[in-house]
Every structure is written in C-alpha cells, then in structure tokens.
Amino acid sequence: MSFSGRRVSILRPSDSRRFSTNKELSENEKNSETHRDFRAAHEGHRPHAGLDASRASTGVIWCTERANEHGFQDDPSSWANLGQGAPEVDDEIEGSFHRPTTIPIESAAREYGPTAGIKSLRAAVARLYNEHYRKGKESQYTWENVCIVPGGRAGLIRIAAILGNSYLSFPIPDYTAYSEMLSLFKNFSPIPIPLAEEDHYHIHPDKIAEEIARGTSVILTSNPRNPTGHVVSNPELARIQDICRGRATLILDEFYGGYNYATGCDGTTISGAENVVDVDKDDVLLIDGLTKRFRLPGWRIAWVVGPKEFINALASAGSYLDGGANVPFQEAAVPMLEPSLVRAEMKALQVHFRKKRDYVLSRLHEIGFRIKDVPQATFYIWLDLTSLEPPLPPEANISDGLNFFNALLKEKTIVVPGIFFDLNPAKRRDLFDSPCHHFVRLSYGPKMDVLKRGLDGIERVVRRARGENVGPTLEDEVAIED
C-alpha cells in the first residue's frame, strides 16, 4: 500500500480536517424515519429519578437491539450477523489447536483471585511478549509488568480510572466503545484527531508530535485499526513511540494484532512491545487478550502490559471497578500461551481469515462496490456505500449507513453504521455533521456460510434499490408463511 505523504492537520481549513470526502446527508436522509428514531434514542428520554438517560448503547449493542425488534433473538441462526466484532469460535480452522471443552476447578480457584490476575498467567503473558517481540533486548517483561483483566473494555476502564488530569487524544474513526469510556471519567479531556479518507486514514508521526506539542499527554488508538483494517507498522510505529517517549503515555489496543496479512500469513503479529526501550520507563500500555487472537470472546480474559507502576495502579483500580478476572479460566489459559504454539496458531488464523477477506471483497466487487484499500489486518471492511457503480438513483435512500442497516434487517443481515465509529464523547458534535454516515463496517469474523448469507442479503438490497425484481424480503417471506 502506498501513501501520498500528505500531512493532515486539524488546524487546516475544514475540508482538510475531514476524514471523508462524501457529501453531507441530504434533507431527505436526515428526515428519514431511521434517522429520527436514532436521534431520539441517543438524545435520551424522560428519566427516572437518578437515571442519566443520555447514556447510549455502544454501536454493536444498539444494532443488536434493533435486530431483536425484527426477530433476531428468536432465531439467531437464521441471521447473518456481520455486525458483531467476534471471530468464529469453533475448532474447524486447519492448523489451529482445539480449545478446552472442560475446565477443572480446584478449591483454591473458588476463592477471590488477585485483582491483577494469577501469577502463572501474568508470567506466561510476559514470556510470550519477550519471545515474540523482545529477543536480544536487555530490558525484558516480567510477571510484574502484566495485569490480567476481565475483558478489553474492563482494561480500558481501569486505565481511564488511573490517568491523571490530562488531554487525551484519539484518532477517528475508531472502536465504538471508546466513546462511552472517554465520557465517563472527568480526569482527562478527550480530543479527537480526525483522519482523512483520501490519506488512507493514516496516522502520521508528525501529527502525533503536533498533538504532544500542544499539550496532549495521553494518546489512545487501536492498532491494527478498528474499523478500517489499516495498521501502523514499523518503522513508523517505532517513530511514534520515540516521539511519545518521556512526553506522553501511549495506549495501544492491540486486540487485532494476530490478524496480520501484510507478512505473507507467516504467523508474525504486530505489537508496540517490539519498540519499547525500557519496559518500566517507557509509558506504553498494550492491551490484548484471548478474545480475538485465541477466538475465546466468552472467556473474558485479557491483559494490559506496561511499566510496573502502571500495573500496580491498575491492580488497585480493579479492586473497586470489576473485582478481577475469572480464576479457573485464567488457569486454563496458561498452556495456550506457549510461544511456539501461539506462532503456529497465528499462522493458521491468518491463512484462514485472509481467505474470508478475499471472498468478501470479491463478492462486494461483483455487487458493484469499489474498495479503495484492501485491509491488511483485522477482520473488518470499512465500506463506502457511495462507491457503488453505477451509482444508485437518489430515491433509493440506502447510501447512508443507518438506512442501509435498516434495509438489511429485512434481509436478516446485520452490519454496523459508520456513525458509531465517529467517536463523539459528551455529544459535543451534532451527529448529522459526521462524514462517517455513508459507511458501514462489515465483519468477516463469522463462518463462511454466514458470510455468504449476509452478502446475498446485501446483493438483494442493492438490486432492489436499482429497481430490479428480486422478490419479497426474507422478513416478508416469514410474514407470508405465518
């Protein structure tokens, strides 16, 4: 992938600071029933005593709630859920090790566990990072550099709770759950860094330097990046870490580090741990876990790797925020983290998911979408709905994410509207000003048969919008049968 080298600054005129060149929402789109319902839900309702009704669901949860209104919860197996960011979990990937089907529970595991996690798992995580990213380096991680947390969100919440008064910058678009986390705590002020679509949503090191120069002391981003599938790799990632060293805390959400297709699917994974000079002095916090890389989202076992002082503070925060991760699952995770086993697992993962990525891209191209950038990581596609060729007639009204999402519900298919990735803590911007409206995020995490059903649904929606006769929607067919 080549980049223009163009620098993007939020200090430039408005057209330069947007991360999309798409047109604004038309009045017709703004006044659609889908948009009115969305806005009403996110502006809150008459509260009960003590209830802050302005708290909104994360994007995936909101989408699932809407799908439930169309029967998703009653029969999820008949739906194609391309919305939830979850990988397939069955033991059917060639070369992948089988997950435990039973977990022994010793009497000691019935007790409260340490809020930083059990020592054996913390040591296993440290060993994995040293083996994969720090061979030959003088400074090595130990178990004291690892905090086990009950899921990635819990890790992020703990981190947010221990930050001092600061400006926290975050590139957008990015992971939807950041938005609520960034609005919960008042010890920092969140500042967005809009990235440009024409610049491939690239995070330039000079942009990070500019943020730090104006007072930012904490930077948060996913890498590989959710939802675009882009990745900041070395030497640019090392340059960013050099810029932050001694000046800003860098928080890297690396949950998709295993889904790396840029190195020939050889099992190589991505982590800022490779560029850390001193594990106890570099203010770099790395978040990962079993959820994505090991395809165990239900276990809720994740970790934060960083300097000991941070880890001690995170352990203390766990005592009053979440109480710590499940002990039996922590014990079961230890043998999974043997470095050579993980390398083989990542190779199998990458080969399998790259095939699914290529299938989805091929189908989308056949339908008429033109994808500018092939994602080099994650299992997401950031789909520009205005890229259809030939363009849809104006009256089709599915060129924005919310109406496209709504049309797909009738075909028993779920995607996530792009608006959710335009993080907007404290609702400081009007949602209709977002340039993400004409995007959706598609997940190719599910199994191939689910992907096929979902893409069939997308094809029917597009063909129907073109005026072709494709018969009744799946929802209508069920109603006729009833």
UniProtKB/TrEMBL annotation:
Q: Which GO terms describe its molecular function?
A: L-aspartate:2-oxoglutarate aminotransferase activity; pyridoxal phosphate binding
Q: Where is this region: Disordered?
A: 1-35
Q: Which GO terms describe its biological process?
A: amino acid metabolic process
Q: Which cofactor does it need?
A: pyridoxal 5'-phosphate
Q: Does the keyword Nucleotide-binding apply?
A: no
Going by the record, the broad EC class of this enzyme is: transferase
Stored Gene3D superfamilies:
Type I PLP-dependent aspartate aminotransferase-like (Major domain)
Q: Where is the Aminotransferase class I/classII large domain?
A: 107-444
Which top-rank group of organisms is this from?
Eukaryota
Record-listed E.C. numbers: 2.6.1.1
Q: Which UniProt keywords apply?
A: Aminotransferase, Pyridoxal phosphate, Transferase
Q: Which family does it belong to?
A: Belongs to the class-I pyridoxal-phosphate-dependent aminotransferase family.
Name this protein carries in UniProt? Aspartate transaminase
Native source species: Rasamsonia emersonii (strain ATCC 16479 / CBS 393.64 / IMI 116815)
